[in-house]
Design brief:
This protein is α/β, with parallel strands linked by helices and about 170 residues long. It has six helices and four strands. The chain has one domain: Rossmann fold (3-Layer(aba) Sandwich). It is an enzyme of class 2 (transferase).
Length: about 170
């Protein structure tokens, strides 16, 4: 009988370079996300010198900065953090949807984890809840996802990245 093999990442083999790309808009919420992400990375053994933070105006600008970071810095993972809060216009749907779609495409294009910690919420209260109060801290969750994916991809070796380099 054939046994089912399972592969998953851990939080042990996570060394490397991490870049956090942060949208400053709604900074009163986003600052807590950044603190949570940095704290999570350093608690898991990532040296503070291996963490870079790139600031952009808002969520709309995050994907372009992530793309440039992936092209130039070639980190082990990128963590995107920001907050898009619904208003009375369709602007929310456009910004949130395009940001999410672009981040997903970039991680596939560059074969590098891009953790999405961009909050898309209906109110400032919901944003505050997800930035470290009732609903946890989505910056911590994004950092944990980034580290787990770095570890998981290492389970498959460097063959994929070597193929894309040739």
């Amino acid at each position: 009988m054939h046994s089912i093999s399972q592969v998953e990442g851990s939080f042990v083999d996570v060394e490397g370079r991490y870049v956090i790309v942060v949208g400053r808009f709604n900074h009163h919420v986003v600052d807590s996300l950044v603190e949570g992400a940095v704290d999570s990375l350093t608690r898991h053994g990532i040296d503070a010198g291996a963490i870079d933070i790139v600031h952009v105006p808002g969520a709309w600008e995050i994907p372009l900065a992530v793309k440039r970071v992936l092209e130039v810095a070639r980190p082990d993972a990128v963590i995107a953090l920001g907050a898009v809060i619904r208003g009375g216009t369709p602007h929310f749907e456009h910004v949130a949807g395009e940001c999410n779609s672009a981040l997903s495409r970039l991680q596939l294009e560059f074969d590098t984890p891009v953790a999405n910690g961009v909050l898309t919420v209906n109110s400032i209260e919901q944003a505050i809840e997800r930035a470290g109060t009732k609903a946890g801290n989505k910056g911590i969750e994004a950092a944990m996802a980034a580290m787990e994916m770095v570890s998981l991809l290492r389970c498959f070796g460097d063959e994929a990245s070597q193929e894309s380099d040739s």
